[in-house]
Each structure stands twice: as structure tokens, then as C-alpha cells.
Amino acid sequence: MKLQPESKKELTRIACGTAICTAALWVAFAALHLVGWVKFDYTVVLGSLIGAAVAIGNFAGICIVCQKVIDEQDEKRRKATLQASYNVRMLLQAVWIIVSIGAPCFQPFASVLPLLFPRVTIYYLQITGKYKPLAPAGPSTCQSDTPCCRGWISSCTTTWGITLTSISP
Q1: Least CB-packed of 27, 39, 83, 139 within 10 Å?
Q2: 107: closest CA among 165, 40, 54, 60?
Q3: Which stretches within 35-153 are classed as H helix?
């Protein structure tokens, strides 16, 4: 599936923001290493790189699934696809958190923190005025009370510029 230009643009922004935050994390670890508070070695770099990849992959998964369900005519199938995507993405993040804490080749804090970097990037873009959410085109696009509809379906509409007006219960 080819991403829409707006989705590609937002995914690139999130990837760049996550990369910048990851570099800042490395600088912070290096500074704390100089004063002897933490160890800055390959575990920090490896864990943060994989954590950033998981975070960006999660965001890409949202974009791809939102685009995919727009064309789906069957409401039950749309909801099932969205819920399955949400569950899989949360499961993958949970697995990464467990592995990063349990495996000695990863520094746990440096591995888990990048999962928050896409959200930090979005906040930065909103605060600096470089991102202005699109106004919803009419009533709410999803009135279901499933976790995915309460959380990120409306975010798909406002955050990534993907119009989900065809998804209405």
C-alpha cells in the first residue's frame, strides 16, 4: 500500500523528531556518564535505536491501517481491523518493553523512552505552530466506545490529515 502524501509528510516529521530526541538522549547519557551517574555504552545506543524503530513503526502502522479502513464498506470489518491493529501494536510495544528490561544487551531506560518520542514531537510541532490540526469535517468520525475509537481514530483525522468521514457508525 502506498501512503498518501500527507501521511508520508507526517511520518517523515515523526521520524525526524524521534531521531532528534534519540540523539538528545545520547547526549544526556554521555553527559551523565562523564559525572559517573550512568554507563554510556553500546546498550544505550542499541536499545534506543531499536526503541525508536518500534515507535516509528507504531506510527507507520497507524497511518497504514487508517488509510486501509477508509475504503472498507463493512462497518464490522472496519472496527475489527482497527481493533486488531491497535491490539497488535500495543502487544509489540509491550514485548519490546519486556525484552528491553530483561535482556542485558539493552539499557532499559534508554530502550523504553523512545516510545514516547513521537508524542513529544507532536507536542513540539503544536507548540511552535508548525502543525495545525485540520478541523473535523462534520460530526465525529467514530462514535463507538472501543479503545481504538476513543483514542486514535479521531487522532487519525486531526493529527495526520487523513479524512475518515467515510467511517461513521
Answers
A1: 139
A2: 40
A3: 42-70, 75-102, 108-112, 117-127, 147-148
